[in-house]
Protein: Rhamnulokinase
Organism: Actinacidiphila oryziradicis
Amino acid sequence: AFPYAFAAADLGATSGRVIIGRVGRGNLDLTELHRFPNTATRLPTGLHWNLPGLYQGVLDGLREAAKAGAVASIGIDTWAVDYGLLDADGALLGLPHHYRDDRTQDLAERVRDEAGAEYLYSVTGLQHLPFNTVFQLAAAQDRAQLGIAKTLLLVPDLLAYWLTGAVGAEITNASTTGLLDAGTGTWSHDIAALIGLDPRLLPPLREPGAFAGSLLPHVAAFTGLPTTTPVVTVASHDTASAVVAVPATEPGSAYISCGTWSLAGLELDAPVLTEEARAANFTNERGIDGTIRYLRNIMGMWLLEECRRSWSARGLPADLVPLLAEAARAEPFAALIDPDAPEFLAPDDMPAAIADHCARTGQRPPTSQGAIVRCILESLALAHRRVLRRAAELAGRDITHVHLVGGGSRNDLLCQLTADATGLPVVAGPTEATAIGNILVQARAHGLVGDLAEMRRLVADTQHLRRYSPQGGRRAWDAADARVGGPLSDPDPV
Ligand code: LFR
């Protein structure tokens, strides 16, 4: 029943893993083979990803995959935006920066204002985030490297290059750079020229499903996989892979891909490049098969994870399950934050940042851990509501139900609060949406599944999903919403 096994290397901001997906007609089964931490490291040059270490994690996982049996192909997805530069010999010039590094903080706005925010959006349709690739490339530190660089590779493309020796730029991830023309789906030489970037650094674009290359001999020798094992280009932006695996089988659905970030929005056939969309900071990132991921970034579980990290460093309890139980008992709507406030992007001490934000907005800061968790989850649920309502207005669509996928779908309280806040039924799961999307695109390249609808039907039929109905309290949520600010229009969100 499971004739093919595909290896998905799926790297998130806090951990990476290699998962084997077995796919047959009507069957989809996942096994996690290897998981490794992803810890950012601060060097004198800023906050960096330990990319060789992550690559070694991928290799170790692939070795496990080889032990487990035949591997039909390999696919790689990671977070977006970040990149490495290669010189003429293919050597990596410096360790890639982490998107939470602060070197673009003021620069991003300067570049945007000089170029014209309206102009940038009209070409790229990309939300303004201070870490968009285009702003990172404008940073002084990169200037020296850019002088000798010959190739720019986004993180999953760089890992694929190390596995195969072949270069390319996968298009869903390229659409997060601020250098891709949303209309034509090609690199924008005009925007490259604006920041003085030689467009020859940008590799040829490749579509999900395309063959990327086969394994270099030393990779084959280490992993035990044959050199003929293909690396298949998947939707290499993790969020794009997650959207592939949204188990939507009926019209009217919106999605929230909830992990470190909450990415909330709609799948559209064409970008919405209106001035209203820009003012609300909606993005038009690419999905597979020419679809548009019309969504907004919301700060997501990062807020909670960073609290847990700081509690655990101080010797306080940090286990999720008891914290969520405490949060469920805490007073509703006691304190609310705007999760997208810039001070939450990379604070040293998240609980302190939340307390400051509450004090600054005239609220009594939550003191117990349960109250802080409640504040985070209610605030996220409200942000989900605001973003989805605005997306529906801007795209002229009706939303009848919400799919919440990713690690956050395990969080019962967040799922229920999201149903309550939006007033819509929430279908939670799959948790492993990103890896599933990665695997399905590989399976399709092997002719095992058809279009997006068929892939999603397979997910809906095989994965464990939970349903949450809104429990009322409509007035209280309306009042809470009014407290944190009305429609999305802040010109300088994170
Ligand atoms: C989620 C994600 C988001 C992107 C952010 C930074 O993991 O890929 O889509 O905006 O990380 O790359």
